[in-house]
Amino acid sequence: MNAPLAPVALQAKDFKSDYKPVWCPGCGDYSVLSAITKALAMLGLRRENVALVSGIGCSSRIPAYTTCYGFHGVHGRSLPAATGLKVARPDLTVLVASGDGDGYSIGGNHFLHACRRNVDLTYIVMDNHVYGMTKGQPSPTTEPGWSSKLAPGGTGLREFHPLVIALASGANFIARAFSGDPNGCAALIAEAVRHPGFSFIEILSPCVTFRPEQRGWKDAVHPAPVAFTDDPGRAARRIMTDDGFNIGVLYKGNRPVYAVPASNGGAVEDLETAFQL
Amino acid sequence: MRAKPEPAARYADFMSRAYAMELEATERYAQFAEQLETHNNREVAQLFRKLAEIEKLHAKRILEEMRWPSMPAMAPAYAWEGVEGPETAPFGSLHYLMQPWHALEIALRCEQDAQKYYEGIAASRAPQPVRDAAREMASEEAEHVRLIREWMKKVPQPKAGWDEDPDPPRVG
Fold it and tell me: Which of A126, A169, A189, B83 is the most exposed place for a label (fewest CB within 10 A)?
């Protein structure tokens, strides 16, 4: 995070736009929106120095609901767009919003390389283990036995493990949060923004329409029993063996952040010259 | 989720918590109203608006009583036992087809939790003025519980299958 701070502290509501979310009532994403705006207020940032980039899906609607700069991009391509933005404008605080379909399936490959590059971004994935916007198809994090009309008997496929993948690929900060705890989410998002490099937060965000049983997550989540580690080996063991409901920061690394090459500091006019006919 | 907070050490800290609790409840009911307005469930949206107004009045009364121009800074001990204030309804409590009775059921649970919260402080080893204020707040919340129960009697109870949608979003 290197954006200038607001001269007068803004409140969470100052980061909310006039557009009313169209998520289903009870959706966890309402809480994540609230947490993001709270985190931005906690960090004392100015609206004009924050950009929220997203892909496609329920969770990716978030940029429109904030007063920051936003880019509602192409399915699965939020990370490349955000990476380009951060490299071109390192002064901005860039947050990326995605879901388990957008981020782990269509955008799965970008996820790996964004972790590897370690550009200073905060990647927030609202994981509800289903494609909600397109009526409930199984996503990469759906349990193999989850049966529905669209996948009778379940997919039988092992679920994707985003936190382990992030760790193995080089993410510099890894946390898991639960949307039912908006204040806890806000604190984790703020911590992720402060941590240099690529920060990844997986937020368990129930889909009450297609996965109503996820209302039960509130009873399953619990604080991570041990403090975070900076040792990737230890973190890998912990993340691989946890029950998927450990909440908190799980890993904080010390990898050097991707440095923007000095030659990228060209003026906009120079770029325009190249496109003149 | 978090460590149990220390009992409010001072009366002002206690009242600032009480104010925060009412404010958080106001905001959440207003958010619920917006969500249901978006989904054209106007009856329940209106009810949540009304509940938000009621909580706002409670918050205003605390400010007036304490002669605070705005919300004071929270004491370091400020925290709830749960993830949010005891009077704040969880985000996940809604359904797009819910009926007024369901909204009142949510409000009833919140008022009961608030009553329990204040009763806990009243029975703690907090300073006497805090315990006295907590006892008073608990009895106010008990009165709200009674009023909501009365309100629920006037509202039709949802029939079985209230959440069945002839044009469901859910195909699974």
Answer: A169
Question: What is the DSSP code (8-state) at residue B98?
Answer: -
Task: Give the C-alpha separation, A31 to B83, whole Å.
Answer: 12
Q: Domains (ranges, CATH) in chain B?
A: 11-74+95-153 (1.20.1260.10)
pTM, entire model:
0.89
Strand, helix or coil at A72? strand
Pick the CATH number of A22-274 from 3.30.360.10, 3.50.20.10, 3.40.50.970, 3.20.20.300: 3.40.50.970
CB contact under 8 A, A149 and B94: no
- The predicted complex's ipTM stands at 0.83
Query: What is the tens place of the pLDDT at every residue in B115-160?
Result: 999 999 999 888 899 999 999 999 999 999 999 999 999 999 999 9
- Neighbour-count burial of B57, counting CB atoms closer than 10 A to its CB (0-12 exposed, 13-18 middle, 19+ buried): exposed
- pLDDT higher than threshold 60 for residue A62: yes
Q: Is B92 part of the contact surface with chain A (CB cutoff 8 Å)?
A: yes
Residues on chain A touching B92 (C-beta within 8 angstroms): 26, 28, 179-180, 206, 208, 215, 218
Residue contact A218–B90, C-beta within 8 A: yes
Residue of A nearest to B92 (CA): A26
> Domain ranges in chain A?
22-274
Residue of B nearest to A207 (CA): B92
